[in-house]
Amino acid sequence: MLKKLVLPLAAAAILGLTGSATASATAPPAPQPSAGPLEPGPFHHRLDQLVGTWKAVKYNYILSGDGTPIVSRDITVRTSWIAKTSGRFLQERTDGTLGGKKYFRLGVLGFSTIDRRYEWTTFDSVTPTAMTYRGPALSHVTPVLSIPGEFTDPGVLGPEYVGRTIPMRTVITLGAHPRFDLYFTPPGQRERLVDHVVYLRRTA
Q: What DSSP element (H or E) covers 110?
């Protein structure tokens, strides 16, 4: 009689520890970790088309003073994800000449998952101030990024504009040959193109 009781009790104890086969089959799966607002997402991955070392041509419509473009055909652009930001920000380094002088630009481009906007800041060898842009909130990924900003003119538009706030806008067109277009809107005037860069090809 004791032997008959021991076997059912042992079986019950095992089921209590492991659960029945039926219960295991119907139990909900364990929750999987999901990408939160701090993680890079599709808006970041859209910028992968910019990554690489590029030969580019730069057209500047402002430095000549008469609207005639100054063309630079020796521009090299190196763009890479900043590893220590876990793929949140791109760094761009541009080297070449502009109007017969050495030209350099450092840019940082990223997407704020909190504000849902692209943010772009550049430092170059022409202007003595950071050029900062903050885009509008976006609901979907787009191949054309229009990112507005403003800067205090050190005189690039002429002596009459020194110290004045100038609205500006960078338009980044993604694709096989990315383009960067910079526009200024001087007070009382229409927006005008002041800089145009075309990425021609990736290099080894």
A: strand 101-112
94 within some domain: yes
Domain CATH number, residue 106: 2.40.128.20
154 with 137: CB under 8 angstroms?
Answer: no
Domain hosting residue 157, numbered range: 42-202
Percent of the chain with pLDDT over 90: 71
Check: pTM over 0.70? Answer yes or no. yes
In a domain, 96, yes or no: yes
Per-residue pLDDT tens digits for 149-202: 999 999 999 899 999 999 999 999 999 999 999 999 999 999 999 999 999 988
Q: Would 26 be classed as within a structural domain?
A: no
